[in-house]
What does this fold into?
Amino acid sequence: MSETVVLRARTTAPVDRVRRALTDAGELGTWLAEHATVRLPDRFEFWGRHTPEGDAPRQTLRHVDDDSLRFDWAIGGEDTTVEIGWADEGGDTVVTVSQSHFPGWGAAVAETSVLGYLYTYWCLSLANLVDHVEGRPLTPKVDFATTEMRGEVLIGAPVAAVAHSLVDAEEYSRWFGAKIDIEAWEGGRVAMGGLELNPQPAKVVDFEPGKRMGVDWGGMVSTWELAESDGGTRLTFVQSGFDTGQPPYGAWAGWLSGVAELRRFHELAVWRPIWLRPDVPGLPEGMLTEG
It folds into this structure.
């Protein structure tokens, strides 16, 4: 049974700025997709290497007004519906994305189909939208045309501070927005949702304090490495060791959306999460945290 997943993100940018970023083809080509065509009220299309099943545009615009747009998206063998809305709420602009045909949290984690990883696809897309309209550098997008998963970002904070954020469970849970337990030593356990919710935790297979960590999630190894760069930190991250016939694009998009928030956490003088509570069918109780 499929349901609808709903994501909400907030930005300090005004409503008109956000609407322009969501409805201008040139801007969509910066923060969302490799290619985009927008001719309102008739066409709203995006495709290319940063879009799932992006060999051709598969969207059909059904409605647009001053506060929202809705389109059908033929993907994963289904005719799904996406609605994007934007509104002023207490001086912030809140962007809401709803995606139909979500197969549930369990299927999303298992990544058995493209429909499952649309959740983290939209997480990363919204994170880049917020940074785009606030004039900040973007986080690397998922490249669905390759099975190579490697990226790097610069973070305007000392290496020691960034390293602490990546191994201290309490601080990690704040910026990532989900509970995690971390045993930061080789052979230690890492459990998204916490050890009480995750009876099969990942295992730390490589650890050098303040520099790098490798975690085997069972079927995939994720690695991060830190280096000093002009007073800041260069964070390099890789996913490897997976079945290239079924690349974990959902996990990769989820990590990248987290990296966007990690940068904000360290670089903004007054940080707060961009995320408001989502509606995710099947999400285990207690998984998410409040920033």
Notes: The radius of gyration is 19 Å. The chain has two domains: 3-139, 149-243.
